[in-house]
Q: What sequence folds into this?
């Protein structure tokens, strides 16, 4: 099974967080990295891991939401319906990729909705580390594990 | 709250364990822009005359500017204090992500005063600010400190500025480390933190910065991104980082070698950005919101130095820990770089101090007895790396070298002051002088001592047109004072935004001024911007004079005046003392400073709106 989603090549990530800047600008109208739907985590000794929803085949967030606020839209994108979300945080805790966040001021969960098929992060990444393309449904991996693999790949 | 600013100064008094949030009065900031400029004003106002930089009366100011944390690319923060190395004003800049986070947390400036009895760190979580115990962090290196603080607060994305063991031991050139490999490195701010028993400042911010005219600001910021993208010169910066300058510098006789005895290094090719790309680099690294990504993650996979991982090696580090120590082993230099980052030392002053000690050793001024048996010859990278650890711990001779070349040479004498390469105590950086005389003037008059980042007039000597459209003769004195003053004033203003050197060429002063106006609603033009730079420069000069700096300190090491270069295109050249004095007199005159004393005149200060300061002289 394949679907269209954001695919990251973490080897190319410079850690500049320009993706966070333009993501938050698009969704919040301002530079507000703590409301960005994509986040860059830096791991010792210096690798950067982009954390963003990969639109899972069987999203645990969707299954676990007590308010049924998380759904799949007609384009297969997993979205949060803000008006139904109570900000309980269950999805934030259950996402293996830690790709759902609590909004810093509104009491709701936020996640990547692929910007209606034209993701800002893809357009602005100077390292061209982010692509929006057809990809197989992969197992969702926690960022610490991605970081470990990256350290092995790059640094040893 | 003023647009462009977060709107608050955070005052932390470590003696009284008190935290005070103070509204930022933007009408007071306006004449200084922010960043460097306003921090200089705060340092002047909030310290007594003639104070001990390692005493509780010194303050540390973490300063952002009106562009930090906005959509404008490539901004930084600066840290300001009185330097324990030079006794002057010290402003040191750092990228990474800390300054932006601080502004997102709601603060433009942190002013840290007093001295804690126990080791502490400051934890800023938006509105909540705590002074926390740091005994569990004391003694730890910078990498571990950063990781442990993140673990404690269970958040990978908080930002930490911390010191290593060198700062704790009050090494006079200890740095402040941010985001693993970025440093506010020069002038010993780490020692000032150490003297205050302050291990770290950690911050998490969840807000954003408002700008006055967001439509115009966005338009300008996107233009700035595009200008960086299109800039040809930045192609090499993106690819090779500052390491792109190694071969150019070496060809032009500007690469300090064996404690500035020469300025061409036979091993330069091994230290170049091209060599690093081939041998060390595994990925690019960038600061917050910077599309240039001048940084690179370097890994040594074989040799005695296998396992070394560091961001770099930056040009300046290749010069001082490489050529200046006669070391052309790239892995050894990368290792030395990592040790400095980790232990908390400025790579420039560390390299320069070891280079000076190597010359002392080769001349018999220091012996095996002094060095605890270390064969401290030039080229001995093994001894260099061991010495770095000794300095950070102040072990054996490391205790002397931890004082920097000025104090160390004054202590051991035997003519070693003749080749102690510093200005006002700050060890000279990686752009040698005898093949670029204007650089001598730039170092002699820089506000924080021997620094290349206040003016870099080499460009004009190598053919760039001056701001008034002239071409200068490389080895002459004509016009050198004017370009030095111009660069210093412009840089002082840009560093108040806080801009990064590597972006300014592409973004340009005019676009920066437009960004500043769109952010704040102010009405700066080029003339006022330059005048503000001049105001800041004069204010800092007044501070330095207040703290005991005199005209006699605006000078260069004797080697520059007396020893002709042994090799390269400028072979045989030195900087004649009379040429230097001519440039310096021209400079004082242009600045409206008294030629006899180097002091700003009352009229000059008054004209710049600094009458209150003029009255104190």
A:
């Amino acid at each position: 099974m394949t679907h269209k989603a954001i695919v990251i090549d973490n080897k190319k990530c410079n850690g500049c967080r320009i993706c966070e800047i333009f993501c938050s600008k698009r969704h919040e109208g301002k530079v507000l990295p703590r409301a960005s739907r994509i986040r860059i985590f830096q791991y010792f000794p210096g690798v950067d891991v982009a954390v963003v929803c990969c639109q899972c085949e069987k999203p645990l967030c969707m299954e676990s939401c007590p308010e049924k606020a998380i759904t799949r839209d007609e384009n297969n994108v997993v979205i949060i319906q803000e008006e139904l979300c109570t900000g309980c945080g269950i999805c934030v805790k259950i996402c293996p990729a830690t790709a759902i966040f609590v909004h810093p001021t509104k009491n709701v969960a936020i996640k990547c909705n692929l910007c209606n098929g034209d993701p800002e992060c893809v357009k602005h990444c100077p390292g061209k580390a982010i692509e929006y393309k057809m990809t197989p449904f992969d197992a969702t991996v926690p960022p610490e594990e991605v970081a470990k693999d990256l350290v092995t790949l790059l640094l040893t | 709250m003023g647009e462009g600013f977060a709107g608050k100064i955070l005052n932390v008094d470590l003696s009284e364990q008190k935290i005070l949030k103070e509204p930022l009065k933007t009408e007071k900031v306006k004449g200084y822009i922010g960043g460097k400029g306003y921090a200089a004003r705060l340092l002047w106002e909030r310290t007594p005359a003639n104070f001990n930089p390692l005493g509780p009366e010194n303050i540390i100011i973490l300063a952002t500017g009106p562009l930090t944390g906005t959509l404008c690319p490539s901004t930084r923060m600066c840290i300001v204090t009185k330097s324990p190395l030079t006794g002057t004003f010290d402003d040191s800049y750092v990228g990474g992500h800390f300054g932006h986070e601080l502004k997102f947390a709601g603060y433009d400036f942190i002013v840290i005063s007093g001295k804690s009895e126990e080791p502490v760190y400051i934890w800023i979580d938006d509105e909540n600010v705590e002074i926390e115990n740091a005994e569990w962090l004391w003694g730890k290196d910078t990498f571990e400190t950063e990781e442990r603080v993140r673990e404690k607060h269970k958040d990978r994305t908080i930002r930490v500025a911390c010191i290593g063991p060198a700062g704790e031991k009050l090494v006079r050139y200890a740095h402040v480390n941010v985001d693993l490999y970025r440093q506010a490195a020069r002038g010993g701010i780490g020692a000032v933190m150490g003297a205050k028993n302050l291990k770290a400042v950690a911050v998490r911010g969840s807000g954003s910065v408002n700008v006055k005219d967001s439509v115009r600001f966005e338009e300008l910021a996107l233009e700035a991104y595009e200008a960086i993208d299109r800039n040809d010169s930045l192609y090499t910066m993106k690819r090779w980082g500052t390491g792109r300058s190694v071969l150019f510098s070496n060809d032009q006789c500007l690469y300090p070698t064996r404690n500035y005895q020469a300025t061409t290094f036979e091993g330069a090719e091994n230290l170049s950005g091209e060599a690093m790309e081939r041998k060390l680099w595994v990925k690019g690294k960038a600061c917050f919101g910077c599309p240039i990504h001048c940084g690179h993650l370097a890994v040594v996979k074989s040799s005695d130095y296998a396992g070394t991982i560091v961001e770099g090696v930056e040009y300046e580090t290749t010069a001082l820990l490489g050529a200046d120590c006669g070391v052309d082993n790239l892995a050894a230099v990368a290792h030395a770089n990592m040790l400095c980052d980790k232990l908390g030392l400025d790579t420039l002053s560390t390299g320069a101090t070891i280079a000076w000690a190597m010359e002392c050793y080769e001349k018999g001024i220091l012996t095996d007895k002094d060095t605890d048996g270390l064969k401290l010859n030039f080229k001995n990278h093994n001894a260099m790396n061991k010495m770095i650890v000794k300095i950070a711990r102040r072990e054996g001779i490391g205790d002397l070298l931890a004082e920097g070349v000025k104090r160390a040479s004054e202590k051991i004498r035997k003519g070693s002051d003749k080749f102690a390469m510093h200005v006002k105590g700050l060890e000279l950086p990686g752009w040698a002088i005898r093949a670029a005389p204007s650089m001598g003037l730039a170092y002699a008059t820089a506000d924080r001592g021997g620094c290349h980042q206040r003016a870099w007039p080499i460009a004009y000597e190598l053919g760039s047109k001056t701001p008034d459209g002239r071409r200068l003769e490389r080895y002459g004195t004509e016009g050198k004072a004017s370009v030095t003053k111009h660069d210093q004033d412009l840089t002082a203003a840009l560093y108040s935004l806080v801009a990064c050197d590597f972006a300014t060429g592409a973004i340009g002063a005019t676009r920066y001024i437009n960004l500043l106006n769109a952010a704040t609603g102010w009405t700066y033009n080029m003339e006022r911007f330059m005048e503000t730079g001049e105001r800041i420069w004069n204010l800092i000069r007044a501070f330095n004079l207040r703290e005991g700096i005199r005209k006699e300190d605006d000078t260069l090491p004797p080697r520059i005046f007396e020893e002709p270069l042994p090799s390269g295109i400028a072979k045989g050249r030195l900087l004649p003392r009379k040429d230097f004095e001519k440039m310096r007199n021209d400079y004082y005159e242009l600045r409206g400073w008294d030629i006899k004393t180097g002091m700003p005149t009352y009229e000059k200060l008054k004209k710049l709106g600094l009458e209150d300061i003029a009255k104190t002289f």
About this structure: Chain A touches chain B through 33 residues (CB under 8 Å). The beta strands of chain A are 2-8, 39-43, 47-51, 70-72, 78-80, 101-102, 109-110, 130-136. The longest strand of chain A covers residues 2-8.
